[in-house]
Design brief:
mainly beta; single chain; 51% strand; 8 strands; eight-stranded antiparallel β-barrel
Length: 120
């Protein structure tokens, strides 16, 4: 019960603010991945004028691949991110800490995630 309470207090705080580092364990095979979300710094879709923030996204890195999070992809309960080429996507459940990775539209992996502090 204490773990659930800690999770509920921690994960909903995934909102605009300091960059967030996640450590996630795949539910079936048990392997570990790390993800990094930066919901503070906006990145312009306009490559010619990076200061133009009329259309922007936030960045998430998952195992070295950059994902884009548009503002509409952030709700009270979920964060949705898409690879730059739209070949894969991620859905992070902010209430349970589960991260779902999709290859196209097929759910490929499900992870249990926790917020960690970066050590450097």
């Amino acid at each position: 019960m204490k773990s659930l309470l800690a999770l509920l207090l921690l994960i909903p705080s995934l909102s605009w603010g300091d960059p967030i580092n996640l450590e996630c364990i795949e539910q079936e095979a048990g392997y570990l991945i790390r993800a990094h979300l930066d919901l503070e710094n906006k990145v312009s879709f306009n490559k010619d004028n990076p200061d133009d923030l009329e259309f922007y996204y936030y960045e998430m890195f998952y195992e070295g691949t950059k994902y884009q999070i548009i503002e509409d992809g952030i709700t009270e309960t979920e964060i949705h991110a898409f690879a730059e080429d739209f070949s894969s996507s991620i859905m992070l459940d902010r209430m349970t800490g589960e991260l779902h990775w999709f290859n196209g539209s097929e759910l490929t992996d499900t992870f249990d995630c926790k917020v960690i502090k970066r050590k450097f």
